[in-house]
Amino acid sequence: MIPVAEFKQFTEQQPAFKVLKPWWDVLAEYLTVAMLMIGVFGCTLQVTQDKIICLPNHELQENLSEAPCQQLLPRGIPEQIGALQEVKGLKNNLDLQQYSFINQLCYETALHWYAKYFPYLVVIHTLIFMVCTSFWFKFPGTSSKIEHFISILGKCFDSPWTTRALSEVSGENQKGPAATGRAAAAIVATAGAGLGKAGEGEKEKVLAEPEKVVTEPPVVTLLDKKEGEQAKALFEKVKKFRVHVEEGDILYTMYIRQTVLKVCKFLAILVYNLVYVEKISFLVACRVETSEVTGYASFCCNHTKAHLFSKLAFCYISFVCIYGLTCIYTLYWLFHRPLKEYSFRSVREETGMGDIPDVKNDFAFMLHLIDQYDSLYSKRFAVFLSEVSESRLKQLNLNHEWTPEKLRQKLQRNATGRLELALCMLPGLPDTVFELSEVESLRLEAICDITFPPGLSQLVHLQELSLLHSPARLPFSLQVFLRDHLKVMRVKCEELREVPLWVFGLRGLEELHLEGLFPQELARAATLESLRELKQLKVLSLRSNAGKVPASVTDVAGHLQRLSLHNDGARLVALNSLKKLVALRELELVACGLERIPHAVFSLGALQELDLKDNHLRSIEEILSFQHCRKLVTLRLWHNQIAYVPEHVRKLRSLEQLYLSYNKLETLPSQLGLCSGLRLLDVSHNGLHSLPPEVGLLQNLQHLALSYNALEALPEELFFCRKLRTLLLGDNQLSQLSPHVGALRALSRLELKGNHLEALPEELGNCGGLKKAGLLVEDTLYQGLPAEVRDKMEEE
Question: How far, in Å, are 8, 120, 129, 249, 266 from residue 262 at the CA level?
Fold first, then answer.
């Protein structure tokens, strides 16, 4: 016999594939097993038993063609047997061989092909049905997607995060409509709150209030770090799998094709079986030309398995009919509804995760099949399609990783002296941040999709907030808190239109620093949100590519004291609106492509500091107009292309600091000595060959930078500047240093490296404030000083 196990390979699938087999496929599988048993049983009988038994026909030879075999055995068989006369054939002592020969010959020539091959046909058709049913599980283009889907589905179903997410939703639903109507941001914020106290708090609550156990949400176990990482990896796998599978519909098409093929096969089998099933008869007439061998030409044959085969045929036809009906129902199910679209509407309503997206194509088709098995699979799988669920998981992982103790180790004072917590490149904002009530400055960099939770109000000392490439949403309830506490706000983004609108409503803000680009089509207009709500704004910094000063800057003209515009080389054209900034004290126009000093600056009567760094200034003839800015004390014209300083610089008598470094100066005007209020002069990184003697008139000069020039000698008058504390002469061509340097008793820093000095004057010992740390010179020159001078400099 042929064991049924030999055919197992045709239907063998991974056990996990059963989730993609609806009830009709399961029924069809059992039907094919039954049909296969019929075929195998019939084949076994064919092989192990005699197929046909033939006897000679005792009618006369001339009547052989008129005496059918069926008439030989009517109801009165005994009477007719007695009436038959004995007819003798040829005797050759080979009776057994003769009958075997006749049996085989009649089986091949007289028996209908359907009766001969019925069991083999059953086996072949059943195997075809089996192949059609499981083909999409074996075909490379579909099996890979199915295996991947089943693998992810099982992990999603068994993931502890799935249980936690659904349990949280169940708890929220028990709290009533108010809880389910909360915003996603509030859910994320509270997901990890009080994690460390969860175990004790729940236990005490149950003991203290047993009557409220029914209404309490289910206790949710905490995820350990490994489980959290596994859930995080599952989210990424689901995203990539969704993108991959939603691109095509090969699974849907393959399933339809194999179902249509099974229906066609069913119809063909049903038709020819109904036509030929009557050909299975018990008696078969056989006429063969063997009279010369056996003495007979007509035989009456008995098909020994005809009765059994006819019964098996009717059973087989019945099974085929049931199988065909299931296939027809499958086609109806495939076409009566859109299976290439799947909606999670019921899951969204049940779980409260309103952001679960609908899916399409093969992804949708597999989910429809899963629902025929168990709809719970789709519900648990949907948890990993929800961004809200993913954000909850990220929040829990963050809270596990960034404990309050770990965050306190990152606290340090920033440049303004505030206690700052800086977080960079995190997947989210840990809730534990809001347990550090001592934080005064919060700096968030490269953190995506921040939603500030209600816990932000616990940072009662917060005064400064920096959002660097970190888009943030702020609930309306927290705007009042920030409006009352926040003093400094820094926002850096790719485009200025990404700046959160709530920033422009912080009425208590004193400093606002914005960095980002205007779109090319809007750069010329440079439209910025209204600043009217910022009633206390004193400092505004804007780094962009604006074509003009934003019109909204005039909204704060009455109280703005410092304005900084950094244009990264983009030319700033329209500056007339600066005239309205009557209270402005400090103005920075950095890298704005300016070729001349803007005339609007001369109208700023309250201006004290002006910085025109990194522009294209070649001439500063307009410097005379600065005499109208009577309060101007600092002028920075560094990093330009200025070739000379006009003589009327003498008019700037109130000027205290003048920066002219990184220009193309070769001389300085003697009138510079008339700027009697000058305390700092920086002309380093130029091409100066000499200094005018009038520099000695700068009696208030305390800082003089002459590094990186071409000075060969210093005027003796320079050492009349008794208040000089810093003198930078490095990288020049000085061959000697005048002994009069000893007159600079207040000197505390002297740079001489990079010159051609052969020795240092011993009068340096008279500079009481000059120590070894403040003297920057080659070691050989320093060692050439008298020992007592060196000892004096090395004294503490």
Answer: 19, 19, 7, 20, 6
Among 271, 308, 331, 323, smallest CA distance to 34 is for 323
Does any domain span residue 431? no
- Is the confidence at residue 464, as pLDDT, over 50? yes
For residue 719, give the amino acid letter.
Answer: F
The pLDDT of residue 756 is above 50 = yes
User: With the CA atoms of 711, 713, 719 and 720 taken in that order, what torsion angle do they form, in degrees rounded to the nearest 10?
Assistant: -90
Per the structure, the complete domain to which residue 273 belongs is given by: 2-57+93-146+251-340
Reported as half-sphere exposure (CB side, CA atoms, 13 A), residue 144 has a value of: 6
Alpha-helical (H) ranges within 139-217 are 140-158, 160-174, 177-180, 184-191, 198-208
Contacts of residue 594, Cβ cutoff 8 Å, sequence gap at least 6: 572, 612, 615, 616, 617
Looking at the predicted structure, is the pLDDT value of residue 79 above 60?
Answer: no
Following DSSP, what letter does each residue of 397-447 receive, concatenated?
A: HHHHHS-HHHHHTT-EE-TTS-EEEEEES-SS--GGGGG-TT--EEEEES-
In a domain, 676, yes or no: yes
* Domain membership flag for residue 655: yes
Q: What's the token pair of residue 137? A: 């599980």
Q: Give the domain-ending residue among 324, 340, 356.
A: 340
Q: How crowded is residue 433: how many other Cβ atoms within 10 Å of its Cβ? A: 22
Whether 315 contacts 38, CB under 8 Å: yes
Q: Residues near 207 by Cβ (< 8 Å), separated by ≥ 6?
A: none
Q: And the tokens for 596?
A: 């001349």
What integer is the mean pLDDT of 759-777?
A: 91
Torsion of CA 593, 597, 603, 606, to 10 degrees: 90
Output the pLDDT for position 77.
41
Q: How far apart are CA 727 and CA 707, in angstroms?
A: 9
The residue out of 340, 375, 400 marking a domain boundary is 340
Does some domain include residue 602? Answer: no
- pTM of the predicted protein model: 0.65
Mean pLDDT of 78-101: 56
* Residue whose entry in the numeric block shows the structure tokens 């600066």: 578
Q: CA angle at residue 424 from 420 to 425, to 5 degrees? A: 165
Q: What is the pLDDT of residue 69?
A: 64
Whether residue 197 is predicted with pLDDT greater than 80 in this model: the reply is no
Per-residue pLDDT band at 223 (split at 50, 70, 90): low
Q: What is the rounded end-to-end Cα distance, in angstroms, of the chain?
A: 109
For residue 241, the SS3 value is: helix
Q: What is the DSSP letter of 548?
A: B
